[in-house]
Design goal:
With 238 residues, the protein is an alpha/beta fold. The protein is 37% helix and 17% strand. It has a six-stranded mixed beta sheet, sandwiched between helices. The chain is globular and about 50 Å long.
């Protein structure tokens, strides 16, 4: 590229669909834990699949051009704790726990159900999860073969071990400690592209390390809001 050439500015990220789900948190809109074949005991994978499926069903897209990114600070701690307790007590290991212990397991299930063949990846971050996911979505959408990115965040309540991890991380950064009951969880998802309702550039409020609170708020604000692309398509058919 010569000095006289300029790179075209990126179009802003836009929301095509959004979804949130909570289980066991005490909120009025808590849902029963969705059943997900092959996944047991933990709310992690069912909640991820729930919000992802809502977005992909509400706005069906070409799976070969849809990437998926999942963010979770500590992963499926419920499964990890359960497997550890079974091992310490000398009980027979459950192979399902080994399979579902990695976050990528539910992404594989999601990809199969919705025919997604573009990039799928999971990440852990001490940053605000929404910021990390939006940065990754922006980068993935630079690939000319990717038109949409499904960004999903999930976090679980847990036992004393998880609480201790959060306390250490929060103390180091001077941040609040999350308060989710053991056995509870919440998730949020945004289906993103370059055409639709632009995401507002709002700073994330102080939150625990890796929190999905900002993502949850963004998804809650957009989940009942039709995208400008959808409104344009609707008017075109009238």
């Amino acid at each position: 590229m010569t000095t006289g050439e300029r790179t075209a500015p990126r179009a802003p990220l836009a929301v095509l669909a959004a979804a949130t789900a909570t289980h066991g948190t005490g909120r009025d809109d808590d849902i029963p834990l969705p059943r997900l074949p092959g996944f047991v005991e933990s709310a992690f994978s069912p909640l991820v699949f729930e919000v992802a499926a809502r977005c992909l069903t509400a706005r069906p897209r070409d799976g070969s051009r849809t990437a998926v990114v999942l963010a979770a600070l500590t992963g499926d701690t419920t499964t990890a704790d359960l497997a550890s307790r079974r091992m310490v007590s000398g009980r027979v290991h459950n192979p399902l726990l080994f399979m579902q212990a990695t976050a990528n397991s539910v992404l594989g299930h999601l990809s199969r159900e919705f025919g997604i063949t573009a990039q799928t990846l999971s990440l852990s971050t001490l940053r605000d999860a929404a910021a990390e996911l939006l940065d990754m979505a922006d980068l993935l959408l630079e690939d000319p073969e990717v038109e949409h990115v499904l960004a999903v965040g999930v976090e679980l309540g847990g036992g004393e071990r998880l609480a201790a991890v959060y306390r250490d991380l929060a103390t180091d950064g001077g941040l609040p400690v999350p308060v989710l009951p053991a056995g509870s969880g919440r998730s949020a998802a945004l289906l993103l592209g370059r055409t639709g309702t632009p995401l507002p550039h709002t700073p994330a409020p102080p939150a625990p390390p890796g929190s999905i609170q900002h993502l949850f708020d963004l998804a809650a604000a957009h989940r009942n809001e039709p995208s400008t692309q959808d409104m344009t398509e609707t008017h075109a058919h009238q």
